[in-house]
Fold this sequence. Notes:
single chain; 4 helices; mainly alpha; 77% helix
Amino acid sequence: MRLLRQILRRLPFRFGARSDRRLRHTHARHAQFASFLEQSGFRPHNVDRYERGLQRRRLAKAALLAAAAALVAWIALESVQALTLF
């Protein structure tokens, strides 16, 4: 079912939700294009909210990596302490 939805999303459309969907999910930032759409009255949306979402994802990823590094360091420290006892 998911494969079918992905194929249907990639069908070429001239206008409509297709361009808006690409604007929200792309990795590149299209601030000028978004402002042009807002001025032309296409469909106003908050670009800042999308940027904040990306920033939250980056922060969550950094926090997860830091927690994983701390866990690995703790395991290594405990292993060294256990080996010194024997």
